[in-house]
Amino acid sequence: MPNLEHPAYPAATLLQLESLVPCRESQVSMLLSIFGERQQFSVPSIFIYGHTSSGKTYVMQNLLNTLQLPHVFVNCMEYFTSRLLLEEILTRLQSSSSEPEQTSRARCDSFNDFVRLFKQAVESRELQDQTLYIVLDRAEQLREMEANILPAFLRLQELTDGNVTVVLLSEIVWELFRPSTGCFEPFTLYFPDYSIGHLQKILSQNHPPEYSTDFYSAYINILLGVFYMVCRDLKELQHLAVLNFSKYCEPVVRGEANECDTRKLWKNIEPHLKKAMQTVYLREISSSQWERLQHDDGEAGQLKGLSAHTHVELPYYSKFLLIAAYLASYNPVRTDKRFFLKHHGKIRKTNFMKKREKTSNHLLGPKPFPLDRLLAILYSIVDNRVAPTANIFSQITSLVTLQLLSVVGHNDQLDGPKYKCIVSLDFIRAIARTVNFDIIKYLYDFL
Asked: pTM, whole model, 2 decimals?
């Protein structure tokens, strides 16, 4: 028996809508009762709120498109000023007009102009006899605009004397919107987070056709068992499900197990899911790079580096500064010519590579280096030309503040400051990977 019922819409349309928005039947049913029939006046404004990935935008888009209700959908993050927002609403409203000369972008300097042009656009589309819905996604951006914008949108039905409903979608509660001077109170509707049962049902719908539904549902159950405590974002879970499914299927593809052998499948996928937990919400590496890492069984150092890098995010040139500092700390000075000069001439092997000398430089620890050596290495490893501006020197200071570099000696030294790089090899490899720099090729210990 269908959960959605409304006398104004065909049962087949409601059944299609129900299949598109699983686990949101109660919210859609509430919205249908508020909307009423096409020609009926609805409430002037609706405020829908809930956490990220709770289905607010997705439900509204599918509801309005499936029922073919006239609407304008605008993201306030893209149109971040009141003028851009008002002009975009008018442009989208006029673009569906039958008169081609009205498709040019309307100029709107104030909300009074918006109301006047809005009435003209509604008349040109002959929408006077049905409700027009204006949906403002990421509506929290309205708080950054002029003080009259939010109250005016909430009373747009009154100002235009027309059948229009404004729907605000936000991740924060209405109490943080309400102006101190007061305003028209919208109808509020809360979208709760998806439960683990809801996530199981939604994710299981995307199963590949070559595998059975039960097999894919078992995989989703394992995935949620690992990730649900740290991640409840539906989009991120969908990404993880697609990324790791090929690894889950490997024993079945190789003929080592069948689809019902859950224990073998779990033992195969468990270490890879634990590795994937270290990159949840991060996009340091692409999906293809992550799959290659899984295919090569990865390296312990790479995973440690990724987990360490989750604690800091650096600007582009700061990453190269840190790489240059690491090379200066762990490479002998005499090797700079070999690593960083294109035409360094012949260097005798007997002098350059002594029998590993006594110990590795990494075991001895970082050595201090002067500022001019750091900058010389930086200019060698960065592709484009970098001017020694105050911005570069301020980034060195920031690296010291973050305790990634340390200053050696006193500030009153006449020969200039000296630094040491105090990050680990795993950390610097993770940093270098984000800028596609192979640091191992430039380290003397790994020759």
From this structure: 0.66
Closest by Cα among 324, 415, 418, 428 to 368: 418
Task: Output the CA–CA distances (angstroms, integers) from residue 294 to 5, 22, 238, 273, in the order listed.
Answer: 48, 33, 18, 10
Percent of the chain with pLDDT over 90: 45
- Residue 70's pLDDT band, with cuts at 50, 70 and 90, is very high
Nearest CA to 22 among 221, 240, 227, 203? 203
Strands (E), 85-172: 132-137, 164-170
Least Cα distance to 274 among 247, 249, 311 occurs for 247
Q: What is the DSSP letter of 10?
A: -
> Does the pLDDT of residue 307 top 70, yes or no?
no
* Tokens representing residue 202 in the block: 């939604």
DSSP secondary structure string, 341-372? -SS-----HHHHS-SS-SS-HHHH-PPPEEHH
Dist. CA 139–CA 160, nearest whole Å? 21
Lowest mean pLDDT among 17-21, 273-277, 301-305: 301-305
> How many Cα atoms sit within 13 Å of 201 on the Cβ side?
11
**What is the SS3 assignment for 134?**
strand
Tokens of 136: 């403002």
| Residues paired with residue 408 on neighbouring β-strands, in sequence order | 418
Identify which of 398, 374, 397 has the alpha carbon closest to the alpha carbon of residue 386: 374
- Model confidence pLDDT, tens digit, residues 407-425: 887 655 556 788 999 998 9
pLDDT > 70: percent of the chain: 83
Q: List the single range of 92-106, 244-258, 359-373 with lowest mean pLDDT.
A: 92-106
CA–CA dist 367, 361 (Å, integer): 9
Closest listed residue to residue 367, CA positions, set 402, 331, 329:
329
Long-range interactions of 411-415: CB distance < 8 A, separation 24+: 415/370
Residue 245 bridge partners (DSSP): none
Contact 171, 140 (CB under 8 A): yes
- What span, in angstroms and rounded, lies between the C-alpha atoms of 234 and 198? 10
Report how far residue 233's alpha carbon sits from residue 124's, in angstroms, rounded to the nearest whole number: 42
